[in-house]
Amino acid sequence: xxxxxxxxxxxxxxxxxxGNADKLLILYSKEHxxxxxxxxxxxKPASRKRGAVQLFSHSRFLINSGRELDSISxxxxxxxxxxxxxxxxxxxxxxxxxxxxxxxAPEGVPNGPLFELLLTTMRLLVAGDAELLTRxxxxxxxxxxxYRPSLEQCAHCQRPPEGRLYFSPAIGGVLCDTCKPADxxxxxxxxxxxxxxxxxxxxxxxxxxQLKIERPARNQIKSLLYEYIRYHLERDLKSAAFISGSGQVxxxxxxxxxxxxSK
Amino acid sequence: MNYYARPVARxxxxxxxxxxxxxxxxxxxxxxxLNAPADTALGLARAIxxxxxxxxxxxxxxxxxxxxxxxxxxxERRGRDVLCVVEHPRDVVAMEKTRSFGGLYHVLHxxxxxxxxxxxxxxNIRGLLKRLEGRDVCEVILATNPNVEGDATALYLAGxxxxxxxxxxRIAHGLPVGADLEYADEVTLGKSLEGRQEMK
Lengths: 263, 200
What we know:
The complex is a heterodimer.
Chain A: E1 5-18, E2 22-29, E3 33-39, E4 58-64, E5 70-79, H1 88-104, H2 112-124, H3 130-144, E6 165-168, E7 173-175, E8 187-189, H4 191-202, H5 215-233, H6 238-262
Parallel strand pairs in A: 3-5
Antiparallel strand pairs in A: 1-2, 1-4, 2-3, 4-5, 6-7, 6-8
Chain B: H1 6-15, H2 23-35, H3 38-54, E1 56-57, E2 64-65, H4 71-74, E3 82-86, H5 89-97, E4 104-107, H6 125-132, E5 139-142, H7 148-161, E6 167-170, H8 186-194
Parallel strand pairs in B: 3-4, 3-5, 5-6
Antiparallel strand pairs in B: 1-2
Helix pairs in contact in B: 1-2
């Protein structure tokens, strides 16, 4: 019997305990896109794979192809992103990026630019504006996977959008005032927001720090993109709710600590 | 087609619901129980029934117990000023096996996991805060697992507890006893370097 081995460079999107010390991993690899593999004995203290299979790790794996499920033979960490683990909010954002890729990327289809985008965004999260980086990641990811929303012209009549603007997840982009009846559920938006969406789609994530976006516009961009993603996924992402929750948790903690300090 | 008498089929079916038990193992276990002395099979049935009926959560620490509070919380010899926070009841057993900890425990029953939608409100954190109110606890040890979920939980708890307790600590990360440096993974080795200690 011949054992088929192959090498991948991948980011761990999900690690689930399975059996005694085994872990079922979902990886996003440069070579094969999203793949599901088993890491036997990865939870044992003496396992050499343990570091490489941790959530969000960027690692190099040697994988044994199996009849039903492939299994990890060796693993070596390239980048651990351990600085992300020092902040609950960063953990939430990184979880959201991983959950989004897991939910939206098809299995076994490589997409080099998406792999690079994931790594770049993870690297920039701590130093940059995590919220804006996540928005850029969302729109770039959906564009890379072929779901790019129409921003330059009305998604319905194909003319340059004028007057009051709307955003329709179902029709796939911006709607002009005349075409609004085509989707009664279209969300209101404005020219400024559409221009910002075009910018964050075009700019490299590292350049986003230069952008100054006010809170109301940020909230609008967040809800437009989230509704667009939700329309295509047909479900919610659990960590998205957690990000808003962790923001609230942080505010509550700060408030409580201030109260205690003032007593 | 039905290959088994109805009670045997039901036994195999119930065995197959246990974690890690496939249809073949379920069949083997069921036939073992049928062939075993009556005491063995009925003893198992009684043990399951008794455990299910009598075990509940300790109202103080959240661990499994048949008497409330549990035997650890009742033990007068244990220090009441140090609390060790763990994710699961099985972690209490692991810590107790070390015989190095003489304080009390608090079981969270899980860890914060954004991807699974498990937030702080789903964990036994309210009970922990209630326990700390008006008590002279001088240290809380966060013994959550050294993974993303465990780290997230420890970070959250540290933020919450630091203003309430003089000392909030996290268990060390590093090499297991008897391990070989050559075979250690890079992350563990890095963590053990970070947490190095001066020789006494």
